[in-house]
């Protein structure tokens, strides 16, 4: 999910559509909303004997403190990081802290980086929660302290709080003992926050809140949710994007033992059964004829060729500095890059459980866009958004897939439940039965919403002294935002050009432009969005220019980066820790890349080797990151490790290809993903910072591909232009 | 058709199911134990890994009828069965090093790691890479999986 071009920037038409879709109230109310003023009003009566000073914190009589997390825990660590922010301001003990997903509510739980919607993405969870949760924690602490002062007859200033114990002189109490009394007090406004130099939890290693459950098989994902009388559904979808069901022969499917019903829904044909196995077998037996008149019938080779044909033509202007065409060059260097479709392939295939009644709908999902999904589900069910309850559970990964503006899998689940509630279907006797929709891995790999195909054309003009005088960057690809509530009419899609429009290199003449293409293949943000391809093109090309002018790639970058001290510091830390310039074993080489994304800056130095058979292996990656204050540094490290692995698998062999409009891959045997023997050693170094936290979930990805490609070029002389790497080298 | 008789986590288990039904779905939907996960349905990802008579198997591709009479152990039972000591060391190491991210593949990772350490108490990185190669992790927690297996091996030495 991108940000920075979210509803705060929406034009009035988009804003209206946005509010229609989300069912939100006025934006003013959302932006102006503060929990200190209205949180109490928005909640039901305070819990008996407990303290709920706002929408984010609950203190129970047994002293457990529960943080209501408005973001989806999908592995990125929000249950730990966001809980740490509250714990810090409360001076709580880490062991007493709990985390749970908050209910869907755009008023209480909107993402301030997006506007009036509750959702997770764009690496914004910590960034947009930082001040909000510090205030939430500080307020809870102030109320507990006030209750202690009243009880003990002492001044609040004579009270200290440490590791969950409130003390003054000989008095001492745990949070729970004072919670009921604190709950009766008025909620104070503008409680002062801690001086960061007094932080005791933030910046330290704190055990993840979800480790025990997830290491013992007890964590509950949507696929694990069981409801009484629940049915299980799978959906047959067309093999070509844009096709529609024309005729359905369900006889053989219905004859499968355990199949209960077959229903048509807008996105395909659902087989509903008493078990997944029966539903799966029923789907195998189902016969559907498809109308393919509006379908994409091109193969991906043809799409890439169509895009390359656009490269000579000027596109929509994105950035213009100086006059690229007027520059007289001693040498011109050109390069073209192509990037394939990529599937997200989270380990848990898309799943939801839907229980639809006459007056309401309850949904269980690893829900990433709670209030968008709530609105779309309501529309599909014929209900109002407030009649839809979303129960967010752990998501088995997402990488962007579960956040989509059409709420694809949620709407499918609701459509199935709605079809079953029709009185004409078995006399309505299936109405109200909960339905669990499970996508198979094949459904996931072939189901679209891919990182779009992009083609880039780069051109640099060099002076006789090797200086970089001019830079031209043309991008061709499908828009993620077009047709969505986030589309900004009349402006280039930022998700196509982020990472290219602004670069940390000072070049006197620079032109960036964009051709936006269309296709029935649905596309989506994929961990680090536009920077998945822009950073590869920029950082590969910069490296090539350094080589072209016989300069060290680090020295070349440093010279152009003088006015970007934050980038420079990150680059310097990475190369220092990686012993840049020191000899490596024979058959090894290093490559470097640096990229800013989601307000953070990451640099990677990759070390690669090549064996006698010519096979490339990535041996080690040294990472430096500036993400502002690292709230939970070990989670930051984990996200860098994960971003490196996720990015590496994608650049080495990740590709969704199509032949005649049909996806060639179907499962992990054909959509190859990184395995443990391909994972390099990783070192992560965090730049100390006093600035507010910025993104960590995505920023580890963008510089990984070019760092490895640059190392491969240093080792073999081969520049990788077309991804994945398997087209150029053996990996 | 007579019910299929097995042992699940040390207790007798009689399953009335299509013998072609994969063990994974019988355990998840009939026995109600959901710790083992569905990731691919094709023995490609290892999220469904269980032990059958002590050996790690991909339960998504194991017909229940093909293992009648066997002893099946899942993540729910591994810490109490004959491999309890190894399992505890592995789970403790997983928790100590905060291996998990999304967590969806981790039941399968742990089942494979327990099998590895049972056979090879002091694995090298290479042993780990080859034993764990069938278990995908899209969050790429691989660095910590390696470290946690070494950690568990160390704890078991004592």
Q: Main beta sheet of chain B: strand number and arrangement?
A: 5 strands, mixed
- Spatial arrangement of strands, main beta sheet of chain B: 2-1-5-3-4
- CATH domain class of the largest domain in chain B: Mainly Alpha
- Measured by DSSP, the beta-strand proportion of chain B falls in 5-15%
The tally of beta strands of chain B, per DSSP, is 5
Oligomer: heterodimer
Cα-to-Cα separation, first versus last residue of chain A: 30 Å
Describe the protein's architecture and organization.
- Chain A has 731 residues and is of the alpha+beta class.
- Chain A folds into three domains: 7-215, Aldehyde oxidase/xanthine dehydrogenase, molybdopterin binding domain (Aldehyde Oxidoreductase, domain 4), CATH 3.30.365; 222-294 and 350-438, 2-Layer Sandwich (Aldehyde Oxidoreductase, domain 4); 300-341 and 449-727, Aldehyde oxidase/xanthine dehydrogenase, molybdopterin binding domain (Aldehyde Oxidoreductase, domain 4, 2-Layer Sandwich).
- Chain A has a seven-stranded mixed beta sheet with strand order 9-10-7-17-14-15-16, sandwiched between helices. A five-stranded mixed beta sheet of chain A has the order 12-20-19-18-13, with helices on both faces. In chain A, strands 21-22-23-26 form a four-stranded mixed beta sheet.
- Chain B folds into two domains: 4-73, Ubiquitin-like (UB roll), CATH 3.10.20.30; 84-157, Orthogonal Bundle (DNA polymerase, domain 1).
- In chain B, 37% of the residues lie in helices and 13% in strands.
- In chain B, strands 2-1-5-3-4 form a five-stranded mixed beta sheet, with helices on both faces.
- In chain B, helix 2 crosses helix 3 (106-119) and helix 2 (84-96) packs across helix 5 (142-157).
- Chain B is globular and about 50 Å long.
- The model of chain B has no long low-confidence stretch (mean pLDDT 97).
- Chains A and B meet through helix 8, helix 10 and helix 19 of A and helix 1, helix 2, helix 3, helix 4 and helix 5 of B.
